[in-house]
Structures are given as structure tokens and as C-alpha cells.
What we know:
alpha/beta
Amino acid sequence: MAIVTELYYLPSLEYFSAVLGHEEIQLDPTEKYQKQTYRNRTKILLANKIETLSVPVLGGNKRLAYKDVKIDYSQKWKNVHLRGIISAYGKAPFFEYFYPYLEKVYQKNLTHLFELNFELLTVCLRLLQLNVRLTVCSDMTQNEPKEDIRGVLDTKQNFSERRFYQPQPYTQLFGLDFAPNLSVVDLLFCEGTGARNILMASQKK
């Protein structure tokens, strides 16, 4: 069955817990872009804090179609994000294996946020070894059965209040207490090929 979702920036473990087990992820490029969402932000774990990485955009407050929202390269966000990821995970067990796949996407300097997020999601699904199709389609009225979770993963609500994700602790690089629901890159760099099994155990039953 297909699932309809928003397209997020390096999505959280909750997102992947929600899509796990579906055959297809459907994305609507014509939906109106919304600020203060996961479309342009994600969280990683640094030595002394959880850091939010945010991609600056142009015209994000003008209710543009998501596909038309451009990344603001006048700000040095890309260097900040890559340095942050290296600082956070450079010593992680699987960093040297997986980081080049992500870096290659950033090096393209893609113009639009939708393109960047689509390519990063494609890489993450491949590294997680999830057999799911990514489909871009603006007509969501077709009759085939599908689950629609657009608008559900709200930044203003804690993941524990929703039905998708229950933290399954794994070994992180920093801190005594497990930090749940970070970007999927945290899980990938720390657990590598075991990431998929952690995700499966993280699905709320």
C-alpha cells in the first residue's frame, strides 16, 4: 500500500517508522510550502547538545508551491551543516562508509529545496535498504488504497503523542541518556547495516 507524506529534510526516525512496510511513498510537489516544519530542518546530536540544522529558503513566507521554493545560498548553511555532521559523527562506526553518499548530494548545489530533500531521502532509503518506491504526483485523488499522514508530524507536538514511533535505544556517540527521534543520519552513522532492524523495533505496535 502507498503512503502520502510531506517531503522532509533528512527526516527523523519517526518518519521512517511511519513509512516502513509501505510499498510506495507519494509526494506532492504542488502543495503550499509551510514554514516552521520539518521540510527544511532536522536534528543531530553533538557532544554537548542536540543541534537543529535549518536550510534557509527564499520566499518561504509567500505560500509558494513546495517545488518552487529555492534554497538561499547567500547564507553559508551548507558548510555549517556539513561541518556539523562531521563534528557529530566523524568518529561513528559507519561514518566513512555512508558520508560520501550524502556529501555527493550537497555538492550538486541544487536550486530547489524539494530537489535537495528528494535526493537525500532517496539516499537514506537506499542506505537503510528499504524497498520502497518514491513517487512524485500532484493528483492525490486516485482511488487506490493509501494512507495519508500529511500534516500529522507536527513540530509543535511530541512524537510520543503520535502513533508511529517508540524509541528503541542504540549506541550513540555522546551523552549518557539516549536522545530519541533524531535525524535518520544519527542511526545510520551509529548502526550502519543494523539500522533497518532498529527501525523495525521502533515501530509502535
